[in-house]
Amino acid sequence: MSDIAIVTLCSAPRLAHLRNQLRATAGTPRVVVWIGDDDAPALDAESVVHVPPGPAGLRLAAARNAGARAAEALGARLLVFLDADCIPGPELVERYRDAAAQHPDAVLCGPVTYLPAGAALDAASLRAATAPHAARPAPPPGVLQCAAAEEYPLFWSLSFATTPAVWRAIGGFDEQYEGYGGEDTDFAFSLRRASVPMIWVGGADAYHQHHETSSPPWQHLDDILRNGRRFARKWGEWPMTGWLEAFERAGAVVREDDGWRRASA
Which residues form the Glycosyltransferase 2-like domain (predicted)? Predict the structure, then answer.
């Protein structure tokens, strides 16, 4: 059994993207956590775990924790988390493995390139398309860069890796978050509080397959308010402020002394 397992969360709307990822990761053990309220379809994965939604929506935090446990049960000594939309670059697994050998006590974060609609997904095309999202550090291939304290909020669960020992020490994701938003930044703040290094891994490229989206994400407004308030009570500040300010400009939310709420009808 491989020393690495790839953990992916998926529901029906992202199934086609997931199947592309599973084809690209053949030969590496895969754990799929199915997060819909339906049964998972037949999938080419070594382990399929079902974490159904909770009363407030998809349980992304609980699903990642379940995926970590399932991957460790397969014998994985390195957990690589990829969004269902993401295709790993040809060097992603090896870059994460090498980084983990040098920083076994860290959480490792590779660059993510957003692909246009209809992009080819073969290795050569992915290499040619590499253009990491500018919001996060992307050191040159082979370079490992320790995140500064102020960079921890840039953590994305789209692509990251860590060992089961680090995962257990952190306590995983806070499962009180349900629905969209907040759990990634909460995880990053937990890393920073515990003095767990976060490493930007040059060359561990992932490629996000195109799908329609909205910015700000109007369909998740209530989730963002609920999870944002939970985060603020825990950490003393609100996450996702860019989206909240966009909602505010549109008149959908109003700012109060302790944060935001829906505007009155």
Answer: 48-113
Partner residues linked to 113 by β-bridges? 207
Measure Cα distances from 248 to 225, 228, 260 in Å: 12, 14, 9
Let me know: does 9 contact 84? Beta carbons within 8 Å.
Answer: yes
Measured CA distances, 42 to 19, 36, 48, 69, 169 (Å): 10, 14, 9, 21, 33
CA 143 to CA 220: how far, in whole Å?
Answer: 36
The closest of 213, 207, 17, 211 to 113, measured between CA atoms, is: 207
Domains in the chain, CATH or no CATH each? 4-208 (3.90.550.10), 218-262 (no CATH)
**DSSP readout, 73-99?**
HTT-SEEEEE-TTEEEPTTHHHHHHHH
**CB 81 within 8 Å of CB 96:** no
Q: Cα–Cα distance between 136 and 187 in angstroms, integer? A: 17
Give the tens place of pLDDT for each residue, 181-210.
999 999 999 999 999 999 999 999 999 999
What's the maximum distance between 2 C-alpha atoms anywhere in the chain?
57
pLDDT in tens, 204-216: 999 999 987 778 8
This model's pTM is above 0.90: yes
Which position has the token pair 């921890």? 152
Q: Where would I find the H helices in the chain?
A: 15-24, 60-73, 92-102, 123-129, 164-170, 183-193, 221-235, 241-249
Residue % of the chain over a pLDDT of 90: 93
